[in-house]
Write a structure and sequence with these properties.
Chain lengths: 397, 397
């Protein structure tokens, strides 16, 4: 054997590659953040030539910022301190269980931590993430439980005249069994896409864990792309790798709501599901809450479970669509049919808080039955993960 | 209506959020890179306080670096130039069609370009990417063609005693039809995982495009996790968000090869596929080429198509496994059964070039039939995307 083949040690391969890699892309052997036994997070970066490094993240006391909607809270920042070897560090206090986001600011430039490969994109911004476990945050972790399948598929929309990408979660055991399942349609906000709930929202982990704990029924979760002008998430369509923008392709002109029965038909003709009102739920955040409101009242026999998470309520000024006509009459028809759950959730500093309060007043005046769930803070993914974790266990029971 | 609901303009929502987002995470309205009509790439970043900014990427003339394996080429770098507004820029020459990787180096720290949300992780390093279209690189783009489904599933391995994550590509039309398809098992290298081929390797796009052009047969592509010690890609298993390392869980002790029939059985009992030798292919890069070599000779009736891309040939020193015993005898059995295609591809500067040359000599001396494909450059994803693009059209014909 040795006569023919020069022995190539895989250990040498490892050495060569990791050396090349380190020279190429940096990284080295720093781990950042390191989570302490006291649930602190210790950030580090090797940067002997940098003048100033800060970390900005949602675990730091918020700062006030002026916006067109008034004063808003934004994540605070903290300075890292440089040692004599050029390594900068900062360690937080003990942190509460949560999925946190952060970036570094190196000499005034916001950039991701080069020693943390875990990142999530939100619109055009990429931030690092880490999880402090415990409590509800354990739902956001991958645990040693049976795992569902996440498929990225495409379906044809005749109304929107394009094929469109869609994310479909099927619960553990779906493929092996012959049971039929209920379906939960879960919609993202403006700036999001069919990847948002599974990435930023940890929907896969939350559902895997709730189902494994017996707290939620096994169900399909269907995550559409709610931007009627879009085929797929940025980078996943023939438009290529353009820079995404917040309202780029959202439209919000009624077209998404109008086409929604095509999604339901696609799911019900392609999956082993229970195709009736009592086995369909719809919920969404912000624009997705708006979509859930308008879809559920437009098709009052379709959904027995409706969730508005930090929802926008009314259409854009000047938008004309039959979807938004006669809201009062359509709501009356919907609530006369007594949906099993109409759930409104919002944070008490959300800039949509007043709009939701007014909408609830309207429902109260008419005697329409709904449930209300209020949290602290505002229009942030932390709240939407909480709302999903609270809402999913109430479905199909 | 207006009596009950305060009108919340979605345009105002957009304003507030994008403003908050910009303050939070930076970005602003710079796009980087901008691809010119001459196929140049123009990089920009706003960094008034930075002292020095470079771009390092595989489109720049390579530099030499010393490694344990001798001198290796690594991507070169170029300086960005600052204008009086604090915006730094650098524009390349016209670039050949290709998928390129790069990072910035800001005051000595390698970081991702904060204005380009398209990034790929390789082991623990994250780099930005962009594509210059044309020629073969058009295979790497999402084009307006029918798209297959990509599913992330889990299967149980009794031999490895864990459930394991697996990526499965089913071609466009799979779900709607009743045809049975051939299966291509596509294996990653050390430091990779079940996400590597679909992310770094653009396997989804390459297969969608080759199938749409009629150049490849519709087929399933099954992308396993080849690290026997691992359940799933970093961050996707109960181990949580640890910092990945190059050889962390690879083992390479024969266990992955031994368990491989479990994967084949899982696929063949869960998908509508043709379950015979002439409808099974296996290929992989580096460690995945090593796995393909050893799996295909261990189970000589399993695969009629075998691809070694920049393959490691021999096991690690000191590893004892029946998988690696009697290589010559097993190769004789395999080649006596005349596989339809045994394909060896490597770059002429690859540090495994000599090992592959020696292996080919061995095959030549025995009169075993194989095909050989040589490219320039070395042990890089650019070559592995090329090899996949060349190999897939030869399968199942």
């Amino acid at each position: 054997m040795k006569k023919f083949i020069v022995f190539v040690s895989i250990a040498m391969l490892a050495g060569a590659i990791s050396c090349a890699q380190q020279a190429l892309w940096g990284g080295g052997d720093i781990t950042s953040p390191v989570i302490g036994t006291d649930n602190s997070a210790a950030f580090s970066i090797f940067a002997p030539e940098a003048q100033k490094i800060e970390v900005t993240g949602d675990f730091l006391p918020p700062q006030k910022m002026q916006t067109p909607m008034g004063e808003m809270d934004v994540p605070g920042s903290a300075a890292l301190v440089k040692d004599d070897k050029g390594v900068w560090t900062y360690t937080t206090e003990s942190l509460a269980p949560e999925l946190y986001s952060y970036t570094f600011v190196i000499d005034g430039v916001k950039v991701c931590d080069p020693n943390n490969p875990y990142m999530i994109r939100d619109v055009a911004s990429v931030t690092n993430i880490f999880i402090i476990g415990g409590g509800r945050a354990d739902l956001y972790k991958v645990n040693d439980v049976p795992h569902g399948t996440v498929a990225r598929r495409w379906y044809q929309s005749d109304l929107l005249q394009k094929d469109r990408r869609i994310t479909i979660y099927t619960p553990a055991g779906y493929e092996a069994g012959n049971e039929s399942y209920p379906v939960f349609y879960l919609l993202h906000g403006a700036g999001g896409d069919e990847n948002a709930w599974s990435e930023l929202g940890r929907a896969t982990q939350i559902l895997d864990n709730l189902i494994a704990q017996g707290k939620a029924k096994p169900m399909l979760v269907v995550m559409t792309n709610g931007n009627a002008g879009q085929q797929a998430a940025p980078g996943e369509s023939p438009r290529g790798m353009y820079k995404p923008s917040f309202m780029g392709d959202t439209r919000m002109d009624g077209a998404f709501e109008e086409h929604f029965p095509e999604v339901v038909k696609f799911i019900e003709s392609n999956y082993r599901v229970k195709a009736d009102k009592s086995h369909r739920a719809i919920a969404g955040l912000s624009m997705g809450g708006f979509h859930s409101l308008h879809i559920s009242k437009e098709y009052p026999d379709m959904f027995d479970y409706v969730g508005l998470y930090s929802a926008a309520i009314m259409p854009r000024e000047g938008v004309q669509s039959k979807i938004y006509d006669n809201l009062d009459e359509k709501l009356k028809i919907q609530f006369d049919k007594k949906p099993k759950l109409y759930w409104i959730a919002i944070g008490n500093t959300d800039f949509l808080f007043k709009a939701n309060t007014d909408f609830r007043k309207k429902l109260d005046e008419k005697g329409y039955k709904y449930q209300y769930y209020e949290t602290g803070e505002g229009h942030i993914w932390k709240n939407w993960r909480i709302y999903l974790s609270e809402f999913a266990p109430m479905l199909f029971k």
